[in-house]
Amino acid sequence: MIDPLDALDQRQRELLGTWLPDFAVESDMSWDLVATTVLRAKAEGRLVVVKAGGPGDHHIEREIRAHREWTGPWTRIGRAARMLHADADARLLVTEYLPGTLVRDTPAAADLDLYVQAGELLRAFHSQSAVEDTDYEARMNTKALAWLDGPNRVEPATADRLRALVRFWPAPTVVRVPTHGDWQTRNWLQDDGVLRVIDFGRAELRPAAEDFERLAVQEFVWHPGSEAAFLSGYGADPREPDAWFRQRVRAAIATACWAHVVGAEDYEAQGHRMIANVLAEAG
């Protein structure tokens, strides 16, 4: 039988032994597409979640920053876990364990009240700070072109059309706010109708509309009324049409190329559908 702690390096195991001497793993909740080990464990008479990053991991550092700087509006009302221990250099994080079940692929994914709550929670998260960035769009365009130049299964003619779009886009100043980065039902828990949030591995300062990305191509399409419910909770729609189109193109490219690299065929197919949709809009 494989010991889930074998995935942790020596320093990570030493820190856990110091922080939580009676630590006992209950289940391995890792997602195999990324080099992060996620464990549910019992320690000091309560359940905790341990996240340990592998070499080169950047998710844990982002998650620790999010807990230190941005999760307050949610932790104060029990909608996100509190961080208990962290060491960014060791790529190790321990949080409370949140009660609830994942919303994705359950009847709750069509519950419009959960989308209202999701909008309200996201608005509170986004409203904490704002900073102007004159170079953000240019950096993101460069990143999109780099994806197309790397390994992928985008048809050459399609890749050329995408490059032609991206290379001639303007790069206006944007306002960046704290974003979750993976805002979708896969990272929502519901507990007796109460929505809670997990996984801050992609948290970063970005334009607010970027937290609409996943929902726009998934839940808003799959569940009638979910977009309107979400916006009723969030308030004013931050998706300025031209900037939103540019972001959707970049997201489509990144999804198709990243998924190919990690071998996630379902996500890769979704990325190719996203590419087809944005190119159809472009005419």
Regions with little confidence, pLDDT below 50 for 5+ residues: none
Secondary-structure element string: HEEEHHEEEHEHHEEEEHHHHH
Overall form: globular
What is the helix fraction of residues, given as a range? 40-55%
Total individual domains: 2
Rg (C-alpha, Å): 20 Å
Order of neighbouring strands in the sheet with most strands: 1-2-3-5-4
Structural class: alpha+beta
In the CATH scheme, the class of the largest domain would be Alpha Beta
Give the CATH topology of the largest domain. Answer: Aminoglycoside 3'-phosphotransferase, Chain: A, domain 2
CATH architecture of the largest domain: Alpha-Beta Complex
Whole-number mean pLDDT: 96
Strand content: 15-25%
The largest sheet is: 5 strands, antiparallel
Protein name: Phosphotransferase family enzyme
In words, what does this structure look like?
The structure is a single chain. This protein has about 280 residues and is α+β, with helices and mostly antiparallel strands. The protein has two domains: about 5-100, Phosphorylase Kinase, domain 1, CATH 3.30.200; about 100-280, Aminoglycoside 3'-phosphotransferase, Chain: A, domain 2 (Alpha-Beta Complex), CATH 3.90.1200.10. The protein contains eleven helices and eleven strands. The chain has helices at about 10-20, 60-70, 70-75, 110-125, 135-150, 155-165, 215, 220, 225-235, 240-260, 265-280; strands spanning about 25-30, 35-45, 45-55, 85, 90-95, 100, 130-135, 175-180, 190, 195, 205. The strands form three sheets. The chain has a five-stranded antiparallel sheet with strand order 1-2-3-5-4, with helices on both faces. The protein has a three-stranded antiparallel sheet with strand order 6-9-10, covered by helices on one side. The longest helix is centred in the last third of the chain and has 22 residues, at about 240-260. It is globular, with a radius of gyration of 20 Å. The model has no long low-confidence stretch (mean pLDDT about 95). It comes from Glycomyces algeriensis.
